[in-house]
Amino acid sequence: METETETDQIYHIDVGNLLGFNPNHRFPSAPSSREELVKECLEEARKLVQAIANALFNFPSTETNDGPIVQLPPPTTKLPREKHVPRPKPPTKWEEFALKKGIQKRKKDKVVWDEQTDQFKRRHGYDRVNDDNDVPIIEAKATDEPGEDPFAKRLDEKKQRVGKQQKNRLQNLKAAEKAGALPSHVQLAATSLPISGTKSQPKKIGKDELGDVAGLAATSTASGGKFDKKLPGEKAPKKQGKHHKYLPVVAGRGAVNQEKEQTNNVLSKIISKHSHEILNVGKAINMYNVKKEKKKSGRSDKSGRSDKLKPKKDITKKPTNKAK
Amino acid sequence: MMEIRTPKTGKAKRVLEKRAPKLVETGRKTLILHGTKTSATVSSVLMELYRLKKGGAIKYSRRNENIRPFESGGETSLEFFSQKTDCSIFVYGSHTKKRPDNLVLGRMYDHQVYDLIEVGIENFKSLLSFSYDKKFAPHEGTKPFICFTGEGFENVPELKHLKEVLTDLFRGEVVDNLNLTGLDRAYVCSAISPTKVFLTHCALKLKRSGTIVPRMELVEVGPSMDLVIRRNRLPNESLMKEAMRTSKDKPKKKEKNVDQDAVRGKIGKIYMPDQKLDEMHLHDKSKGRKRERKESKLLNEETDSKKNKKSSE
């Protein structure tokens, strides 16, 4: 938009931006004093502002509590956009199918008439019409196997349907992302792939575990991680190395000698464990009984064995006195 | 394996929707930051610029050593900040021996650097040094007038570029309706030489004049400085083409209370407000407005005209 002033200069005015441009003014190349220059600039600007205001105040205005409100025209200076133009979303699989078959969208009511209870019930949510979980009896068909649980089967089918729906949703979103038209509130994040090739998800490492691992790594420094700079929020490492508990050297007044007790406990434990190997009680009893019987019936009944079986003493050999 | 992540709270959802690309754009948010070393002038310029643009600007206070806007690798930090804060125009101040009191103004397209212009600051006067009647001090967040004077803005390409960037910087929000009482500031840019621009910020005084349009007067309030053009980088052609692409028309607003029917045609619903029969004003019973009088007057005029016709024929 251009306007002419008395001095026959044409200004470029953009009311939408409250912008005014005077391309015809020539500032003196020989610099006058700074104040003069500033004054000149302000005067020129004042003329421009007046020109814009002339246009602005002549617009039809509506009166409100805060003051007169004017409808601004759209700005005429072309400025680059800050973000790209929103791209159109590619049709989803269902939308393509519906287009092909000519299926129209029908608006469904939130409340539906329920035949069984003769009242209006909501379509989705608590106490809904035709709830799958509410059927008390499922009649057996000829095609049913005897061992199958039809209720579990229904639950299974529902899970399958839900899973299939989620998969389809993911496919649609992926296609939208490819076209650059992902909806603003959705983000697709690639969860990490397991290295081993199994389908199991890698376990997420917790805060405590991270702290332990960090402590472990710190011990590999020259001073064993003692003088490392701690990050804000990092906790002190748990006690590293062997955990010793030393008993007091001198027993206190009235206190039991703890070290003696400790060693006694250890010894009794060992003995009680191996006590069956130290003394064979059964054998000892037998030996004792045999000895007793021998003593009883030992004088009368010498060994029942005959003389023939005993080794014969050689009378020719003289007793040698080895110990001289 | 892909996972769909959606915001769990309404607030988060609204924030994401605000940041999404729109068909018709409102103004840009400004990011103000400074480099490794800043002089007193540069830091006060940045501070005052932040104050002027309070509603739509974010100021970072730390030093940024790895931002070099004109080098190819030095823009990554800027782009990251732009994405984080959703700012698409930035002002980067620094001070080196080679380039004292340096200010780099840059714009982003899709969070990538679109164009840059580097200016040096001379003769800076802070807004604290101006004394004026505080009644006319401009309020925060008002839409400013922007005035460019000088043939340099048309002839010299660097100044043309600077004009565009300054318009984008000072524009504020793009609005449909403007309150005429809220006009109280103006930015004055004058091309005093092919390389120098004098920039100042003024408050507006609206004085009573004879007509509807008040007489405008400018009072210098804000910071004033001389900008010396140093370097600039224009956007590359393809990016410029894409960024300048505008949608032809606004999306059709759904017309409420209007229905199209095959049988009855176009039908509109009118909602009547409650008629308070107790407080209704009946017709004016004052003397001059009695209906009978009016009707008789009309009848007389008709008979007169008929008589005139008859006589003329």
UniProtKB/TrEMBL annotation, chain A:
Pfam families noted in UniProt: RRS1
Residue numbers spanned by region Disordered: 66-92, 143-168, 219-260, 290-324
Domain of life (superkingdom): Eukaryota
Biased amino acid composition, Basic and acidic residues: 150-160, 226-237, 298-317
Localization per Swiss-Prot or TrEMBL: Nucleus
UniProt keyword annotations, A-Z: Nucleus, Ribosome biogenesis
InterPro entries named among the record's database cross-references: Ribosom_reg (IPR007023)
Main location: nucleus
Family from the record: Belongs to the RRS1 family.
Function recorded in the entry: Involved in ribosomal large subunit assembly.
Protein name: Ribosome biogenesis regulatory protein
Organism name: Camelina sativa
TrEMBL record, chain B:
Transmembrane segments: none
Compositional bias segments (type: Basic and acidic residues): 239-249, 275-285, 293-313
Residue ranges of every copy of the Brix domain listed in the record: 28-238
InterPro entries, sorted: Brix, Rpf2
Subcellular localization, as worded in the UniProt entry: Nucleus, Nucleolus
Protein name (record): Ribosome production factor 2 homolog
Species of the source: Camelina sativa
Lineage of source species: Eukaryota, Viridiplantae, Streptophyta, Embryophyta, Tracheophyta
Family: Belongs to the RPF2 family.
Region (Disordered): 238-313
Keyword annotations from UniProtKB, A to Z: Nucleus
Gene: LOC104766278
Main subcellular location of this protein, as a coarse class: nucleus
